[in-house]
Design goal:
- This protein is mainly α.
- The chain has a single domain, classed as Hypothetical protein af1432.
- Helix content is about 70%, strand content about 0%.
- The protein contains nine helices and no strands.
- α3 (about 45-55) packs across α8 and α6 (about 75-85) packs antiparallel against α7.
- The protein is globular, with a radius of gyration of 15 Å.
Length: about 160
């Protein structure tokens, strides 16, 4: 359903800061990373994977990087409601993670933290420059977590 939604907005919003093909790669990678991080952190992996897959929904809807986290809050709630996969409380939890994922220096709930970590890690694994210092700090902070995950048999 998410890919169909992305394709729908691709036809509606043609001017984009990032190509839709990159968006699809990024959400897929983030969802996988988020799922594994959730297992390691004893958090619901399906919720984490969904939140990671939806975290850039605002950029899908608007085509713009600037303000995309906040812009995704209401649209992602409407999308998730249509899926009929989540309770109202779960939808709100995912939407909050979407809304706050760009604030890398702030600490949120477990799902939000997984989204932030997966986002930074995904950019790093593709060699994409992390332009903000708060992103670089978060990446340095989770390097120890990644080492612990590898020791426990979790391979990202």
């Amino acid at each position: 359903m998410l890919i169909a939604e992305i394709d729908k907005y691709g036809a509606l919003v043609t001017e984009r800061d990032e190509p839709l093909e990159w968006e699809k790669v990024h959400i897929s990678s983030c969802a996988k990373i988020g799922y594994l991080m959730a297992l390691f952190r004893d958090v619901d992996p399906d919720m984490a994977a969904c939140a990671c897959a939806c975290h850039d929904f605002g950029r899908i809807v608007t085509g713009k990087q600037k303000g995309h986290a906040e812009a995704g809050y209401e649209p992602v709630k409407a999308f998730l409601k249509k899926t009929e996969l989540f309770s109202e409380e779960e939808i709100e939890q995912i939407a909050i993670a979407v809304k706050n994922h760009s604030s890398k220096s702030e600490v949120g709930g477990p799902i939000e933290e997984i989204v932030k970590d997966a986002d930074v890690l995904d950019f790093d694994q593709y060699g994409t420059e992390l332009p903000r210092e708060e992103q670089k700090r978060r990446l340095r902070r989770i390097e120890g977590v990644l080492a612990d995950m590898k020791k426990a048999g979790f391979v990202l």
